């Protein structure tokens, strides 16, 4: 604690000073908690000591005050960590939805022998899926972080791709590009079985994610006109699992290899597609597709190194890996 005192010096020891004009202001620091108790030896003619200023103690912090400060600091540190080093916010991943595992009838029977036939029972384990397709903004951050070239149609108004369309689904990326993003984000591309199970949204024997009919007006190209109708993500109602655009907007890359006849030999538990093949799967249809392509069972193959103006992707994550974060 700090005291300011007046010290009067008298050359004649033991005599009182007549005036206080000879007093000098001196600051003295004491280790004692008791105010005004100074032990001194009057060897220089110090006749008296007068404390004339208030003791200046350091402010006392209450326990509550300190707890509030500590709590505030913790919140700040958490926010800084989440925005600079936490995977989900740092990379701005799309929010994920928990898809509870189960069994369902995959595909659809067809006498014409289409590639989505025969219908067959499949079981999938629980997993997490991106609520919406990966956006231009999210994919741009990935490119900037690893020094990767931006998508094929970047800054193209025609394909809603670039800095002016950050909340639109990214297009112009190959299957290889999509796999690279998924790996960077600590995720993966969905299997075909996972994708269809999620797209159905819990509905049974329905053709589209939200029912038996395609009801999204203006979500595909008008006949005879070249007009891109890609919409921002989450523009339409989600399906029963809370997933957006599982039909329409843009096609989505699947992790599996494409085979026309795979359904004839598919495993029942968590099928992962054939081991060999020249093409990769895409699902869901797009703004450029007719209603048939938007059916939950419709499947199509595309070269894995092809970049298309109507193909994007979304990611999934295993249940156990999500729990470890």
How does this model look, in words?
Strands 10-9-8-11 form a four-stranded mixed beta sheet. It has 325 residues and is of the alpha+beta class. The chain has six helices and twelve strands. The two termini are 50 Å apart. The longest helix has 22 residues. Helices cover 19% and strands 18% of the residues.
Distance between the termini: 50 Å
Strand order of the largest sheet: 10-9-8-11
**What's the total count of β strands?**
12
Structural class: alpha+beta
Strand content is 15-25%
Helix share of residues?
A: 10-25%
Give the overall average pLDDT: 79
Secondary-structure element series: EEEHHEEEEHHHEEEEEH
The major sheet is characterized as: 4 strands, mixed
Coarse shape: globular
* Contiguous uncertain segments of 5+ residues: 1-59, 79-91
Helix tally? 6
Q: What is Rg?
A: 36 Å
Summarize the helices and strands and which ones pair or pack.
Blueprint: E1 2-9, E2 24-29, E3 46-51, H1 63-84, H2 87-90, E4 96-99, E5 102-106, E6 120-124, E7 127-130, H3 136-146, H4 175-184, H5 192-200, E8 251-257, E9 279-283, E10 299-303, E11 311-312, E12 316-318, H6 319-323
Parallel strand pairs: 8-11
Antiparallel strand pairs: 1-2, 1-3, 4-7, 5-6, 7-12, 8-9, 9-10
In short:
This protein is α+β, with helices and mostly antiparallel strands and 325 residues long. Helix content is 19%, strand content 18%.
Keywords:
4-stranded mixed β-sheet; alpha+beta; about 325 residues; globular; 3-stranded antiparallel β-sheet; 6 helices
């Amino acid at each position: 604690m700090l005291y300011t005192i007046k010290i009067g010096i008298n050359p004649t020891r033991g005599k009182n000073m007549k005036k206080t004009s000879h007093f000098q202001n001196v600051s003295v620091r004491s280790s004692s908690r008791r105010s005004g108790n100074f032990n001194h030896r009057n060897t220089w003619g110090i006749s008296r000591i007068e404390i004339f200023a208030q003791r200046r103690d350091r402010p006392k912090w209450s326990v509550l005050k300190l707890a509030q400060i500590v709590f505030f600091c913790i919140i700040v540190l958490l926010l800084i960590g989440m925005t600079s080093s936490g995977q989900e916010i740092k990379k701005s991943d799309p929010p994920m939805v928990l898809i509870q595992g189960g069994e369902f009838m995959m595909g659809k029977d067809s006498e014409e022998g289409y590639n989505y036939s025969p219908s067959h029972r499949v079981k999938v384990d629980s997993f997490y899926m991106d609520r919406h397709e990966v956006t231009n903004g999210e994919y741009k951050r990935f490119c900037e972080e690893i020094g990767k070239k931006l998508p094929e149609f970047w800054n193209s108004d025609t394909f809603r791709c670039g800095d002016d369309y950050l909340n639109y689904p990214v297009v112009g990326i190959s299957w290889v590009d999509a796999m690279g993003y998924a790996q960077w984000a600590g995720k993966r591309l969905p299997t075909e079985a996972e994708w269809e199970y999620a797209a159905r949204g819990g509905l049974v024997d329905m053709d589209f994610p939200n029912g038996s009919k395609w009801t999204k007006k203006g979500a595909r190209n008008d006949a005879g006109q070249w007009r891109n109708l890609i919409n921002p993500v989450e523009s339409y109602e989600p399906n029963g699992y809370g997933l957006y655009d599982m039909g329409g907007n843009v096609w989505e890359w699947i992790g599996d290899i494409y085979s026309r006849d795979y359904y004839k030999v598919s495993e029942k538990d968590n099928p992962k597609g054939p081991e060999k093949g020249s093409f990769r799967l895409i699902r869901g249809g797009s703004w450029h597709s007719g209603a048939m392509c938007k059916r939950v069972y419709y499947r199509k193959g595309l070269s894995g190194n092809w970049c298309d103006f109507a193909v994007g992707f979304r990611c999934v994550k295993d249940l156990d890996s999500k729990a470890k974060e």
